[in-house]
């Protein structure tokens, strides 16, 4: 949000989202990985410039938080725009892998400790 156009004007976040303040889906967290679909659907509607910027950054998998930082936009705005793209079939979203809550392998931890002690 630090930049503007050549005249110094700044586009407000609510303008980018069409006045929407909440995402239409709850699929996205900060660490959800998004990737652009290749090839893009031919039938999909014409994109806003912000949607196009997102798709360019999503050519390779990228986390939502990283995408927001790269675009210099608030995460909430990026999530709303990602919902648009997901609903149009232009991106895929992968949730983070759940972390196992089981107890750690004591033998492995001892080997790591011993290895570090030898350094």
The secondary structure category is: mainly alpha
| Number of helices in the DSSP assignment | 5
Total number of strands: 3
Largest sheet: 3 strands, antiparallel
Strand content: 5-15%
Order of helices and strands: HEHEHHEH
Q: What's the Cα radius of gyration? A: 20 Å
Estimate percent helicity: 25-40%
Architecture overview:
The chain is mostly helical and 119 residues long. Helix content is 39%, strand content 8%. The chain has a 3-stranded antiparallel β-sheet with strand order 2-1-3. The chain is elongated, with a radius of gyration of 20 Å.
Report a brief summary of the structure.
The chain has 119 residues and is mainly α. It has helices at residues 13-16, 49-57, 64-71, 75-87, 106-118; strands at residues 33-36, 62-63, 91-94. It has a 3-stranded antiparallel β-sheet.
Task: Give me some keywords for this one.
single chain; 119 residues; mainly alpha; 5 helices; 3 strands; 39% helix
List the helices and strands and how they pair.
Elements lengths: L12 H4 L16 E4 L12 H9 L4 E2 H8 L3 H13 L3 E4 L11 H13 L1
Helix pairs in contact: 3-4
């Amino acid at each position: 949000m630090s930049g503007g156009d050549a005249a110094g004007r700044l586009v407000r976040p609510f303008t980018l989202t069409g006045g929407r303040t909440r995402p239409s889906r709850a699929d996205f967290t900060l660490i959800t990985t998004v990737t652009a679909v290749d090839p893009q659907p031919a039938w999909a509607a014409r994109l806003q410039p912000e949607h196009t910027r997102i798709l360019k950054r999503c050519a390779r998998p990228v986390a939502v938080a990283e995408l927001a930082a790269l675009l210099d936009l608030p995460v909430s705005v990026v999530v709303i725009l990602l919902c648009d793209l997901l609903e149009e079939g232009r991106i895929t979203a992968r949730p983070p892998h759940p972390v196992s809550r089981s107890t750690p392998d004591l033998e492995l931890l001892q080997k790591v400790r011993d290895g570090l002690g030898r350094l």
